[in-house]
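Lab meeting, item 3. Inverse folding demo.
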């Protein structure tokens, strides 16, 4: 290594030379709650009127048991558990097709 060179960061790459999942996920931008709502509405989910207090919204679908509840302002960042709940709900309605 030459003088003044920055030493490699071993945490940034795995032993295979690929970027580690931590580094890859550390720089992803979370989706907005409005994007999750748009995904649900586009796939046939319907918002229940009066389905939540404050910034809580509840969505149902005829082929999905239960409901998907999203919290947060439309412009707020979606939480990882909200992304997971959305993914599971969309997979469940796809399986029944």
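The presenter then showed the designed sequence:
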């Amino acid at each position: 290594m030459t003088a003044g060179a920055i030493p490699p960061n071993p945490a940034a790459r795995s032993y295979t030379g690929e970027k580690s999942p931590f580094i890859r996920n550390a720089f992803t931008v979370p989706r907005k709650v409005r994007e999750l709502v748009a995904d649900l509405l586009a796939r046939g989910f319907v918002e229940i009127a009066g389905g939540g207090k404050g910034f809580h919204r509840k969505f149902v679908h005829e082929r999905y048991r239960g409901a998907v509840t999203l919290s947060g302002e439309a412009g707020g960042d979606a939480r990882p558990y909200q992304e997971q709940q959305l993914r599971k709900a969309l997979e469940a309605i796809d399986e029944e097709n």
